[in-house]
Amino acid sequence: MRKRALGVVVALVLVGMLVGVGPTWAGHPTWWPSRAKSAQIASDGSPRDARLTIPRIGIHRLRVVDYRGVTDDAPGTRIQNRGIAASPHGPHGGVGPGGIGNYQITAHRTAHGGVFRRTPSLPRGARILVDAGRWRYVYRVVRTRWVDFRSARSLRRQRAAVPGHPGATPHRGYLTLSTCATPEDHARGDFWTDRLGNPQHRIDKIAVLVRREPRPR
Question: What pTM, to 2 d.p., does this model score?
Fold first, then answer.
């Protein structure tokens, strides 16, 4: 009996550790919609430009430019170098605003205006608002991921339709906000960069689509 009771306790602890961190885990926050509700509030996923607002860190209607490619490639870097944000689509990119799958947005943290300088501080539950067309898509942060630019596996996880789970079929809308971990890398003595100036690590905030509402005028 004592062994059985211990097994139950261990199982409950493991479930508690997994609650709210992703789509394939045991639970989720109370504001995370069901799959059916997610399908109702999602867009068709078509790529398009958008405007990004993150009230918690003072970002208001930041321009997000859509392009065909992958996160932090040369075309995306050129877009970011204009002091705005970039959103890749295509075979190894993401979906458009509000789509089922992984909507990916990248921007600079320490250069060209540093528009994402405070995104690593976003806590779980923080709201992220994306305006596209006549709709506003409301996302909530659910977790943080670190990406290693020197690891193909890590990059596949970042760009997966279900963030962190290559090959999984998405049933909800996700958002990956990605920016550099340059200050953290430099603090550890890591000064490596690729040919485009990307440091070894990126800090991603993963969010889930929770609501759609008419875009404010």
Answer: 0.86
> Given CA atoms 148, 152, 153, 159 in this order, what sign does their dihedral have?
positive
- Domain at 32-214: CATH architecture: Beta Barrel (2.40)
**Amino acid identity, position 81:** N
- The domain locations on the chain are 1-30, 32-214
Per-residue pLDDT of the chain (217 residues; tens, 9 = 90+): 444 444 433 343 333 333 333 444 445 777 788 888 888 999 999 999 999 999 999 999 999 999 999 999 999 999 999 999 999 999 889 999 999 999 999 999 999 999 999 999 999 999 999 999 999 999 999 999 999 999 999 999 999 999 999 999 999 999 999 999 999 999 999 999 999 999 999 999 999 999 999 999 8
Amino acid making up residue 140: R
